[in-house]
Structures are given as C-alpha cells and as structure tokens.
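Many introductory courses stop at the sequence. We go one step further.
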Amino acid sequence: MNNPILLNNLRNVPDFPVPGIQFKDVTTLFKNAECMRVMLDELYELYKDKGITKVVGIESRGFVMGAALAVRLGAGFVMCRKPGKLPADTIRETYMKEYGKDTIEIHSDAIAPDDVVLLHDDLLATGGSMKAALNLVNKFKPAKVYVNFLIELTIEGLNGRKVFPRGTDITTLMRI
C-alpha cells in the first residue's frame, strides 16, 4: 500500500535502541490526525468483511491502532502484554527477539473458540513477538486468525515472514 502520506510522516531514528539499528518511529504517525485516519481507513478496508470478533494488540504500539480498529469493526479488544501487567489469570509465551529474550502474556479468558481474531502490531522485523502472540492466540483454538502490521521491514537478513507457519494470513500497510 505504501501511502505517501504515511511514508512522509514516518520518522527514522538511527542507532536506536542499539548502534546499527535504524528504528522506524511510528509515534510521528500517531501524533498526526491525517495519518491516523489514513491508517484506520486502510486497516478497516482490509478487514471489514472478515468477521473479526477480537483484535489483539501487542504491547505497546499495537494498542493504538488495534483499539481504534476494534471499535470501527465492532469487535472486542484484547491486550497482549509484558509479564505482570495484566491483573487476572494469564498464559504466557517466551521468545527470542533482535536484542535478547522476552515474554508476553494474555488473559486466559480473552478469546473463545468461535472468535475470529486479528493480531495487530506496528512493525514486522524478525517476527519474534508476533509469532509468540500467534502461538498464544492459537492455544485458544479460535475459528480464524489474521496477522497485521503497520510496517514490514524488507531489509535483507530479517525475513520476518519466514517465522510464521505456511498459510498465515499476513498484511502490512507499508513495506520499507
């Protein structure tokens, strides 16, 4: 899709969080009302006919558009968070990421078997956090799962899509 409005408002932060990384900062998209509208409209068009009943946002940038999209789709919103942040019983998944090991959790009653789930996050790089979130959601045995990112990095060596099982339905708004 690579909407020029989004591309022109995306900030690149060199050497963050470690030297050599070119961090794609989506906060510049979130602070711009036109960018928010464009992203929400594009996401809605992708998923309006999919029967989504739950949108799962990955901490923390996945909460912004994930929650807005859930409202627009008439779906519930579920938070996938770092350990110790959710107040009730949770299930967890530990995974490797670019800079080390991490864990995410979701409430154990968050998803039902008849739910159609959209997993949403801001960025696909190596795919570690979303693959962990997909593993968590699949434990609930939902009817269908879709995966979405605002941005997919196409830098040689990252290959984020390759960590997902064949047939995983993945969409992105921007490929850079």
